[in-house]
Amino acid sequence: MMKLKKVSWLIMVGMLVLFSSECDRQDRIEQALRQYQSRTVVRNSKGKLFRVEDYRLTSSDDGGRTWIGLSTIPSMGYAVWGYSLACGDDDVLHFAQVGVGKGKKAVYVSRSLDGGKTWIGPVVANDEIWAQREDPEIISKGEKVFVVWVERSERAPTGVARPSGVYFSCSFDGGRSWNEDTWLREGEDPSIAVGEDGTVYLTYVGGRRLNIIYISYSENNGRSWNSETTGERLVIIKEPYVIPVGSTLYLFCHAVVPSFAHITPGARLDYQTYYLTSNDRGKSWSNMIEWKEEGRD
After folding, report:
1. pTM confidence score
2. For residue 1, what pLDDT band results from cuts at 50, 70 and 90?
């Protein structure tokens, strides 16, 4: 009888451990989802939130309930080409935008040392190559600043052209100067993240049907890259975003199953939020799971 009671107790303890582990996993996924949903909002070390709408910087001290205007960031172009805001652990704000300038359309980066009241720059982040550029995404970690964008090849008057696709550049002096940019591969919708160990992750969509998510990561600030993929999926994907938490990658995206609506002019596509996880830096992935409103599969 004593042995039976001991076995029952061990089974109960094991079930509690499994339940606790599952709750922790779900909490991490929900936290990552909230980060994905609020990815256009950045936070400084004091908890103040910042966001940009049509080059107007606003801030919130109450968790986003109310927002006040701080400044208008000098514009080099049009919002339709894309812009991105970052706040590093040193509380310096960096703003990337695409504007008309050197090399047709250029990626410009400005910085603010006083919480967004005034801005320094902008500085061109890309090589002086003639091309069309859009969708810049920026992130910073101390004096290291990383920016990624999509480039459309266009032959310059000099005859020089280079491949279209996803490009990356970095600065090691807070955005004052920039290294040579790097081409990764053809792709759309890039995003960028930095892990706790300093690994830089780039996420973007590829494939003729935009149904493959690529993860490129660098452990040496972009000098070399390793690339993995989630493989071809039976959906059309946009806005992928990776969130590294310890040894786990949480990958969120919006996706829709192809249908006749895709060839119907003016049809509204019903994109849903999906997520995947990887524990080996993208070599293998979980199933693609649709996020339900109640937060459960």
Report:
1. 0.85
2. low
Q: How many CB atoms lie within 10 A of CB 63?
A: 10
Task: Give the amino acid at 175.
Answer: G
221 or 258, which is more confident: 221
Distance CA 176, CA 145 (A): 10
Q: Which residue in the block uniquely carries the two structure tokens 């799971």?
A: 289
Under 8 Å between Cβ of 122 and 76: yes
* 267-278: burial string, b at 16+ Cβ within 10 Å, e else: eeeeeebbbbbb
Q: How far, in Å, CA of 210 to CA of 275, rounded?
A: 16
Which residue, 151, 143, 198, 200, is CA-closest to 173?
Answer: 143
* Longest Cα separation, the chain: 90
C-alpha distance from residue 49 to each of 45, 61, 136, 175, 205 (Å): 10, 7, 21, 21, 29
* pLDDT tens digits for range 117-154: 999 989 999 998 888 999 999 999 989 999 999 999 87
Sign of the Cα torsion 157, 104, 109, 35 reads: negative
